[in-house]
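In response to reviewer comment 3 from the previous cycle, which asked for concrete evidence that the modeling workflow produces usable outputs, we include below a single protein chain processed end to end. The sequence was submitted unchanged, and the resulting structure tokens are shown without manual editing.
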Amino acid sequence: MQFGVLQFFSWSRRVPLETVYERAFDRIAIMDEGGYDAVWLAEHHFNTYSVCPSVTVMGSQVAARTKRMRIGMAVTLAAFYQPLRLAEELAMVDMLSGGRLNWGAGRGFDPREFRAFDVPVEESSERFRECVEIVQAAWRDDRLNFHGKYWQFEDVEVLPKPLQQPSPPVWLAATSPDSIARAASDGYTILVDPHASHVEIGEKRKLYFRLLEEHGHPTGNRTIPTARLISVAETDAEAKDVARAGAQWTVASYAKGMQREGDPVERYVNDVVIHGSPSRVIDEIRRLRDEIGMDYLLAAPLSHESFMLFTEKVLPKLV
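The workflow returned the following structure tokens.
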């Protein structure tokens, strides 16, 4: 298995925001020295759930502070971007990091973001896919010529090109059956979200690989980063308390629109968050590897203690 960290920049307003960033950079430095493949940066707007409106700006800062680890975008909300600007900025991160960019792109779902950026929700899926297509063409072609539904470009030399050629690795965020089907039909590899249950993750993986085969795309060498909320403590009971607090924060600040039937907090605690003592978390990760095929855990620790215990006592047993 591979392991990365899905880095949020959650802000409770009890401390200065710059302190949140510095604490995150301290953790990123630890990741760079440890067994992590990558840090993945989560883009969000207008929400204290994670104050990171520009993953390319943040990615450049991470590039300057690290030497080994890859820098993932999880995700750039491509439906909101002018695609040439996005292609340039991502290529800059790849260049400045020495070719360490992992690009994840997503459509977004928060109604506030669509309203604020004046992007009609009903157009977002097509805009997202067209933007991804343009970014890749801008990287690949000496001069870009593109005639789509939302953007038209004639003979544009987009610079710089990424250091990784012909392209940095690309993933599309896919949460619904429709988004999985669209990604599979075009042969893209997918990222899986932190809000689905473990069972749902397994079902999504099966659907994705089946649809890849149906569309004639290769299924080998497909690493699917799977985001999971993580709570690790010295005892199972302590870890469950942290998991519940993290679930309450997630539901209250971000995931209201994702609620299913029943108590949403208990759903996260029972079916979504990986929690427990280090030994229990190791067993659970191995179970998910064996039962649903999880090959890349994108860990989102719910506390600093969770991050440190995962790094020191869980990760060495699994890499």
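The domain at 2-173 is CATH 3.20.20.30 (TIM Barrel). We consider this sufficient to address the reviewer's concern, and the full set will be provided in the supplementary archive.
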